[in-house]
Amino acid sequence: MTGWRSSPVRRGTWRSEVDLGLDGRVALVTGASRGIGRAIATALAAEGARVAVAARSAGGVASVAEAIGGRGYVFDSANLEQVDPLVDAVEAELGPIDVYVANTGGPPRHDDPLAIPASEWEAAHRALVVSPMLVLARLVPGMRERGFGRVLAVSSSSAREPLPGLQLSNANRPGLLAAMKLLARENAAHGVTFNAVLPGRIGTDRLAEGHGGIEAAEAAAREEVPAGRLGTPEEVAAAAVFLCSQAAGYVTGQSLLVDGGLTRSW
Question: How many CA atoms, within 13 angstroms, populate the side-chain half-sphere of residue 63?
């Protein structure tokens, strides 16, 4: 998009230089208490959106909501009974939801992909597939009626290339993207778009935990990621906010890798 720039995201800031059409829009971001979800909520708020910050941690939700001028909601994506109360509360307090960012913390890692308990398979499916689809069942009719809606899944590069240790993610994340691809085709003429960002190695607490510390993760990235470093949550947020913008109205049914060139498939 000609003329669109942001401030250097490695400093953790956000500033667009054109109107992205998000001022006054109501945005719901789940999993927003830290990491990528927090960065996206912060970037949307900086563009003037009225942001509903949702996550399991009451303390984390309150902290982020206060920092960005949003409103906090306690919500566990794995608890399907919380979907309707969340949507009801957000729309009663902020208004109809225009932007939905489906983000969750990743499911547990397992070195042996055949030794995962059934309970963890079920929990991962609820959080990564069923919960977002139930939210969409509530939101999409209103978006279609108003002629505007932006749906963004924060997925993973594992949806494109399966990753060792992340079998629950490998199996479930592509399912949500396939479901959203159909919705993208069915709703494109109504001004409602469905897209995804697929982060690779991003400097978050979860990545650090999986590598035995952030220093180890950074060292591995220098050797293995073509960009020679970890990505930042703000870099994912920059891509996410564009896909949620008025300017991206002709982009739908797409999955955008944000991985420094690590994924080998096109």
Answer: 10
Spell out the residues 6+ positions from residue 197 whose beta carbon is closer than 8 angstroms to its own. 152, 153, 154, 155, 236, 239, 240, 243, 255, 256, 258
Strands, sheet with 99-102, edge to edge from the N-terminal-most edge strand = 71-74, 50-55, 26-30, 99-102, 149-154, 192-199, 254-258
Q: How far apart are CA 105 and CA 128, in angstroms?
A: 9
Q: What digits encode the pLDDT tens for the residues 15-62?
A: 556 789 999 999 999 999 999 999 999 999 999 999 999 999 999 999
Helix (H) / strand (E) element for 28: namely: strand 26-30
203 vs 229: CA distance, rounded Å: 9
Q: What are phi and psi of 73, to 5 degrees?
A: -140, 130
Torsion-angle region of 4 (φ positive above 0: left; ψ -120 to 50: alpha; else: beta): beta
Whether the pLDDT of residue 2 is over 50: the answer is no
pTM: 0.91
Measured CA distances, 168 to 15, 126, 129, 177, 207 (Å): 36, 11, 12, 15, 16
pLDDT of residue 14: 54
Per-residue buried b or exposed e for 84-114, using 16+ beta carbons within 10 Å of the residue's own CB: eebbeebbeebeebbbbbbbbbbbeebeeee
Instruction: Please tell me the distance from the alpha carbon of residue 165 to that of residue 179, in angstroms, as a whole number.
Output: 24
Burial of 249 (0-12, 13-18, 19+ CB in 10 A): middle
